[in-house]
């Protein structure tokens, strides 16, 4: 854990310093906050008496907050600096989560989702840009480990909610955890200094982002859509298709989120020796296999297996696309990450809501056919980005 300059200036072995661990900790906190909504959704819908469509609006509002932040964060970073934006965003994630847990009406819980989405996006953009600057030549590894930390955070809510329901406390206490995590990080690591963001007035920031970047940017839309569709409605799928009780379904969703952690843990090691693009293609293919298994299964063991394989496969889509996209414009990581948050947030606005609305019309099993279709588009857009990047000189090989 000792800082070593060779790990942070683009040469030598990858080394994690205190700022790296702080970034990972906040990524875990945000992962917990956004993932808690999925396992809690069947219970939240029952408690508030709302339909799947209204339930899907919670994810839409959360994503809308992320998009709004992506549109304005480029103007905020030069004024506030990364450090202030990071800690303020973390405070918003904590406050929004508490609002969801205390909400007695969907307008209240959706307001909490808006705060979590807007604040969390600011924090994640800061994490991605800071790690990209701190670990320039090891960007795929650092970003994969940050996403792995976020995935660790996504596993915990399913376990907490399942246990909380089992002891009769319900789903609401689980939404206190992000505040506790943020306070812990603040007490332990509040003095850490962040790499300074480049001024937006510099020539590099005024240049148009190249075409290759925008193809990779487009690939985030189906990639995030597939991940969030399964994360948001997997528990409902277990209840409606496999006949699982709500509390057990929330617990079993830990298989999907656990696979995301395992995939990013293993992927982080593979990324040290494999270029991002081949790794992206391999994991997308695995995710397609899991999605077809999930879509075609009705028994609980096969559904759980499908969730696990799907999670394992799609786990590396976001970090590899992020590495490819930022590698194209490595002199502008804040700008690149902010634009990516718009693509990701826009996808979360559309995909879970669309799947939920389809499920209300044709059943949730039929609606899950959306997932493999999205993964096909990931391959298509990424391949076009790879082709467009030929002749350019990204800082990380593709």
Question: What would you note in describing this structure?
Answer:
With 398 residues, this protein is mainly α. It has one domain (17-199, 211-389): Growth Hormone, Chain: A (Up-down Bundle). Helices cover 78% and strands 0% of the residues. The chain has 17 helices and no strands. The protein has helices at residues 18-35, 37-48, 52-80, 82-102, 106-134, 139-166, 177-189, 203-206, 211-240, 246-252, 254-270, 276-295, 300-314, 317-328, 333-362, 364-367, 370-389. Helix 6 (139-166) runs antiparallel to helix 11 (254-270) and helix 12 packs antiparallel against helix 17. The longest helix has 30 residues, at 211-240. It is globular and about 50 Å long. The two termini are 29 Å apart.
Write the layout of secondary structure elements.
Blueprint: H1 18-35, H2 37-48, H3 52-80, H4 82-102, H5 106-134, H6 139-166, H7 177-189, H8 203-206, H9 211-240, H10 246-252, H11 254-270, H12 276-295, H13 300-314, H14 317-328, H15 333-362, H16 364-367, H17 370-389
Helix pairs in contact: 1-4, 1-5, 1-6, 1-7, 2-3, 2-9, 2-10, 3-4, 3-5, 3-15, 4-5, 4-7, 5-6, 5-15, 6-10, 6-11, 6-14, 9-10, 9-13, 9-14, 9-15, 9-17, 11-13, 12-13, 12-14, 12-17
This entry's quaternary arrangement is single chain
| CATH architecture label name | Up-down Bundle
Structural domains: how many: 1
The shape is globular
User: Mind describing the biggest β-sheet?
Assistant: none
Count the helices. How many?
17
**Helix amount:** over 70%
N-C termini distance: 29 Å
What number is the mean pLDDT? 84
Compute the CA-based radius of gyration.
Answer: 20 Å
């Amino acid at each position: 854990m000792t800082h070593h300059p060779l790990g942070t200036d683009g040469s030598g072995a990858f080394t994690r310093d205190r700022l790296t661990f702080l970034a990972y900790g906040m990524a875990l906190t945000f992962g917990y906050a956004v993932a808690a909504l999925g396992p809690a959704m069947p219970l939240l819908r029952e408690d508030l008496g709302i339909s799947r469509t209204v339930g899907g609006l919670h994810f839409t509002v959360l994503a809308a907050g992320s998009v709004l932040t992506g549109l304005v964060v480029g103007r905020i970073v030069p004024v506030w600096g990364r450090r202030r934006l990071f800690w303020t965003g973390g405070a918003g994630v904590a406050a929004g989560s508490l609002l969801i847990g205390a909400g007695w009406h969907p307008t209240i819980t959706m307001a909490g989702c808006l705060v979590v989405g807007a604040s969390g996006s600011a924090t994640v953009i800061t994490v991605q840009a800071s790690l990209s600057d701190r670990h320039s030549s090891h960007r795929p590894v650092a970003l994969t480990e940050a996403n792995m930390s976020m995935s660790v955070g996504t596993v915990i809510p399913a376990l907490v909610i399942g246990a909380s329901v089992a002891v009769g406390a319900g789903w609401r206490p689980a939404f206190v955890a992000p505040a506790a995590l943020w306070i812990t990080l603040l007490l332990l690591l509040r003095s850490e200094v962040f790499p300074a963001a480049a001024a937006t007035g510099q020539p590099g920031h005024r240049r148009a982002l190249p075409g290759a970047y925008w193809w990779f940017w487009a690939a985030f839309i189906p990639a995030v859509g597939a991940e969030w569709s399964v994360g948001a409605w997997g528990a409902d799928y277990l209840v409606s298709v496999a006949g699982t009780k709500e509390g057990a379904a929330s617990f079993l969703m830990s298989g999907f989120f656990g696979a995301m952690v395992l995939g990013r843990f293993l992927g982080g090691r593979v990324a040290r020796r494999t270029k991002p693009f081949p790794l992206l293609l391999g994991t997308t293919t695995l995710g397609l296999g899991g999605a077809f298994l999930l879509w075609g299964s009705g028994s609980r063991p096969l559904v759980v297996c499908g969730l696990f394989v799907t999670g394992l496969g799609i786990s590396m889509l976001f970090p590899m696309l992020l590495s490819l996209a930022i590698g194209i414009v490595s002199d502008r990581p804040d700008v690149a990450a902010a634009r990516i948050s718009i693509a990701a947030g826009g996808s979360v606005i559309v995909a879970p809501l669309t799947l939920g609305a389809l499920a209300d019309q044709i059943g949730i099993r039929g609606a899950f056919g959306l997932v493999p279709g999205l993964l096909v588009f990931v391959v298509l857009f990424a391949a076009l980005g790879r082709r467009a990047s030929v002749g350019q000189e990204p800082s990380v090989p593709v």
